[in-house]
Amino acid sequence: MYSVVKYKGIIDLQDDATMKRYRMVEQLSKGFTVANSTALEMDKLLTEQLDMEIGSPDEDNGNDQRNEDEENVHKALTPTQSASRKKPKLVPSLAISANLEKEFRELFVALKDQKPQVIRYELPQVVTLGLEKPEVDAFQQIVDDLVLGSNVLLIGGAGTGKTYLAEVLVAHQALGRQHITINCSQWTSPTEIIGGQSMDGYVEGKLIEAWRQGYVLVLDELPKIDPNTAGLFNDALAKSRISNAVIFNARKESFTKHSNFACIATGNVYPNKDSMAYGANNKQDLSLLDRFSGSVYFIEKNPKIERRIVQNDMLWSICDKLRGAVEELKYEAQLSLRFMQNAKDAYFLEMQRYKNNGRDGVKSDEGKTFKSAIDSYLSTFTDVQRVNLKQKIDYTGLFSLYQYRSLPINKMM
Ligand SMILES: Nc1ncnc2c1ncn2[C@@H]1O[C@H](COP(=O)(O)OP(=O)(O)OP(=O)(O)O)[C@@H](O)[C@H]1O
Ligand SMILES: [Mg+2]
If we measure between CA atoms, which residue out of 334, 306, 225 comes closest to residue 271? Predict the structure, then answer.
């Protein structure tokens, strides 16, 4: 299937650019075993280049396939020239187009840090990346959607990891693409989206940049945007799956879509109604919501991720118990991954000081502690609510004398 394999034995003698291209084809085709249209295209060009530069290794082995003209050329060569003809020449290729080269360089950068192979695509234009699949239920579906050109909307409570999922896990790790984020609010301006004049002259909008450069556009907290401003996304997001689609910036200049453009939005609630729990959310037009139709994912709290981040079962289970109590008592509050991270960092600092026994000049109870993080969280409730919550988590038993310090950290309570 891949003809460049015939140069396998001498590829290491080629110039850097050629070797790099060979490795790209090798990686894209999983060691030349999988048909991949981009790899096949590259394979064809690379083989043509090598055939031209050094001739097929078979020919050089002196079999009798050569035609007469070639024989004559050989005869005309001096011994040194003849020897050097058999040796691969170290000349850079002219056969690869600048565009294809660029595309492959991007693919190669994305592929360089390959870890265990879990995600595989054989669709056109799609990068195959190795990564350990995150413990998010719909992860594969989300990546598939973006690859297919669908816009994705992630909905979930505060601090469930939506932004991290969009920017880091999906855009960066799974797709190997850069992202550009618009933090949406009622103050988000058209300039930030489609460009406009600023104090320093014209600035290009983030939608335009993502569109032409092939970035993943992250619309963080999309439901918070003014619905009129949100209308500026409608045209582009209707064309996410159309190759070479064109949009216009504020100066009416046209921009053709880069094939890597993708869009993920996040939000706390599905924005089809005014929200009570998240006051700043706006009801959005149905036409905008339709741009994400079929690709809306609800991101729930995820104990597996939480426990991995907290690295400490005891801390996690106290936080989880507290969160359970808040939910059970139906108080309007969240206990997020962000809080857990904060509490964990406080705990590690506290325990370090506790073990040092004041030798570093700070007593363990003076600084930030796990207890102070929990107290701070509880201080945001009313007196009655606080009493109820403390009861539910056995606050006195765990916290009043810092008893949690003596609990084993790897045991669930
Ligand atoms: N899979 C993960 N691995 C490591 N850290 C994570 C992971 N998911 C989230 N985090 C961390 O948890 C915290 C909360 O995540 P994030 O900001 O993505 O939540 P969010 O759902 O976007 O919150 P909000 O609704 O408030 O915007 C961040 O500090 C983030 O770095
Ligand atoms: Mg967020």
Answer: 225
